[in-house]
């Protein structure tokens, strides 16, 4: 029989110790999520109703619903997507499929990485200078969405590149050998196989745009608006700014109102994320390799 | 793939149509500035929807400085301010082709807030100076001859505002004098409500904020100036100007107001508008009877 030496015993003990340590770290990670969600549901759940979601705020924003803010957030996110997805996907296709490995490409990559590191308040001030004043859009949905689009471009570019890279090189080579051009290959082979990854990036962008406050505060979101936006040149209320306002600016707000707004905001993000996960699983199931 | 791109293009074009469909004839008045005025400005904007449905007032906060800067840059129709524009700012505005006209739309009393367990009832200007002013002698509550229950270190926690706030500028000018400066190490809050929230929870704290932000769980000091009787801040004492730390609230327009902006400002100054102001805890510009 093989007897365990002292060294074996010690190794096993150390191994168990680390496993438990890392397990505890992982559990620690989940705790804040659980605490945040349960607090929000406990304190804000009572206010959530169809009326709360679909009516205007009343009585100095201390009562009523959040519809203008909810709709405003949908507008801002939709316009930001329209601007950043085509741009980001096109840039990623160029970088991954066409560009050679030279100083120009490396400089672009450096720029993208740096763009991702710029703090959101700096993006906000850039948005005021560029879109609100220079391009003359005024404080509007368009200005706010373009600011957000620039802020989230790196997310779209990087995730699209990753999913393009994941398509095996052999697929492209096979296609080229059939006499297809580069563009035909991209359109018929690369993109269809990369679409699930691209969508993941898009959804990530949506959840980030939904929650941002600083970039829209100066460029398009208002404290209060008595009308719903009709075009991209209108100002709008937004859920994230509305949460800031009812939590810190307005006296006499019932306690469950800010928690309710926060709950709606987080529910929107979680919903988007789950849709993305479901969609990705569906598309992955259809993959041929 | 074809199906997906078809779906995307349909979605995109329908969004595009929705976005380009222009609104009906609606006049939008841009109104931005003072955090002190933002809640009453919001209440006015909300109520004005019932007066004239074709005029919409878009309200943003940010502080008097933000509103005045926007007026100078010509990006607002009405700037809210809880202080007067400085000569320097007026000159800058003129050089950019703007002509700011001042309108007084109400009065605001600045209350000195202390924790409800704080035994202090009256405070005079000298005491306030020694607490808030640079080089002031009072750093502990015992320096004022007070024992505050629940305040362990006896240290006074001085709560102030960020320096682009009109409230900050007015309190400094009125209480600390023209050349006065705030002491270093104050807690500078970014909103009128934040000051009240903090003082409410902190036994050692003292802070100033608009009377309108008072709650039932906080104490307001009765203020003595120049050895006179002490006056408690209230809408009445602000209106009759007997309370010393009360200031006018301004709206600035670019040139004499015209059209929709004039109608709106006239309505703000009317009995209906002033009653909304009163309801929000500010003092009206003249006696009004509200039900």
From TrEMBL, chain A:
Gene3D superfamilies noted in UniProt: MetI-like (1.10.3720.10)
Origin species: Candidatus Thiodiazotropha endolucinida
Gene Ontology CC annotations of this record: plasma membrane
Localisation per UniProt entry: Cell inner membrane; Cell membrane
GO MF annotations, alphabetized: phosphate transmembrane transporter activity
Listed CDD domains: TM_PBP2
Name assigned to this protein: Phosphate transport system permease protein PstA
TM regions (residue ranges): 20-42, 62-95, 107-126, 132-158, 214-233, 259-283
Top-level taxon in the UniProt lineage: Bacteria
Gene that this polypeptide is encoded by: pstA_2
UniProtKB/TrEMBL annotation, chain B:
Pfam families: PBP_like_2 (PF12849)
GO annotation, cellular component aspect: extracellular region; periplasmic space
GO terms for biological process, alphabetical: cell adhesion; phosphate ion transport
Domain PBP residues, every copy: 21-272
Primary residence: periplasm
UniProt xrefs under InterPro entries: PBP_domain, Phos-bd, Phosphate_ABC_transporter
Chain's role: Involved in the system for phosphate transport across the cytoplasmic membrane.
Official protein name in the record: Phosphate-binding protein
Organism: Candidatus Thiodiazotropha endolucinida
Name of the gene this protein is made from: pstS_2
């Amino acid at each position: 029989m093989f007897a365990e030496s002292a060294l074996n015993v010690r190794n096993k003990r150390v191994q168990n110790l680390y496993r438990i340590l890392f397990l505890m770290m992982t559990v620690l990670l989940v705790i804040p999520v659980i605490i945040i969600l349960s607090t929000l549901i406990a304190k804000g759940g009572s206010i959530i109703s169809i009326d709360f979601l679909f009516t205007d705020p009343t009585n100095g924003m201390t009562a009523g619903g959040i519809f203008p803010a909810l709709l405003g957030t949908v507008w801002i996110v939709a316009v930001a997507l329209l601007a950043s997805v085509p741009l980001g996907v096109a840039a990623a296709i160029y970088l991954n499929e066409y560009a050679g490995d030279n100083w120009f490409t490396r400089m672009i990559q450096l720029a993208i990485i740096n763009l991702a590191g710029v703090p959101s308040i700096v993006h906000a001030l850039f948005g005021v200078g560029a879109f609100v004043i220079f391009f003359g859009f005024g404080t509007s949905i368009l200005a706010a969405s373009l600011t957000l689009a620039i802020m989230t471009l790196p997310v779209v570019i990087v995730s699209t590149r990753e999913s393009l890279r994941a398509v095996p090189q052999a697929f492209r080579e096979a296609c080229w050998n059939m006499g297809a051009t580069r563009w035909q290959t991209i359109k018929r082979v690369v993109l269809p196989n990369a679409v699930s990854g691209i969508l993941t990036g898009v959804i990530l962008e949506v959840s980030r745009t939904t929650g941002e406050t600083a970039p829209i505060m100066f460029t398009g979101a208002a404290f209060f608006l008595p009308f719903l936006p009709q075009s991209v040149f209108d100002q709008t209320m937004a859920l994230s700014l509305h949460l800031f306002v009812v939590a810190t600016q307005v006296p006499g707000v019932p306690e469950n109102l800010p928690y309710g707004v926060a709950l709606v905001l987080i529910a929107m993000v979680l919903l988007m994320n789950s849709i993305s996960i479901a969609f990705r699983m569906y598309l992955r199931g259809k993959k041929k390799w | 793939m074809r199906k997906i791109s078809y779906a995307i293009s349909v979605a995109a074009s329908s969004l595009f149509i929705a976005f380009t469909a222009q609104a009906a004839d609606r006049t939008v008045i841009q109104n931005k500035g003072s955090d002190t005025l933002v809640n009453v400005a919001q209440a006015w904007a909300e109520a004005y929807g019932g007066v004239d449905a074709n005029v919409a007032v878009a309200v943003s906060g940010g502080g008097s400085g933000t509103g005045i800067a926007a007026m100078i840059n010509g990006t607002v129709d009405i700037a809210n301010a809880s202080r007067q524009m400085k000569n320097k700012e007026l000159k800058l505005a003129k050089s950019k082709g703007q002509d700011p006209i001042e309108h007084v739309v109400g009065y605001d009393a600045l209350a000195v807030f202390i924790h409800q367990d704080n035994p202090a009832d009256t405070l005079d200007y000298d005491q306030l100076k020694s607490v808030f002013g640079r080089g002031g002698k009072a750093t502990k509550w015992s320096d004022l001859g007070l024992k505050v229950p629940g305040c362990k270190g006896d240290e006074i926690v001085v709560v102030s505002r960020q320096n682009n706030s009109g409230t900050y500028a007015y309190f400094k000018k009125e209480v600390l004098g023209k050349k006065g400066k705030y002491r270093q190490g104050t807690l500078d809050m970014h909103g009128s409500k934040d000051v009240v929230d903090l003082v409410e929870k902190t036994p050692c704290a003292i802070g100033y904020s608009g009377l309108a932000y008072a709650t039932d769980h906080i104490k307001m000091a009765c203020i003595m100036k120049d050895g006179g009787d002490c006056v408690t801040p209230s809408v009445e004492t602000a209106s009759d100007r007997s309370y010393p730390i009360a200031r006018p609230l301004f709206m600035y327009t670019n040139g004499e107001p015209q059209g929709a902006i004039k109608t709106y400002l006239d309505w703000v100054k009317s009995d209906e508008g002033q009653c909304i102001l009163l309801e929000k805890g500010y003092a009206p510009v003249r006696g009004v009877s509200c039900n």
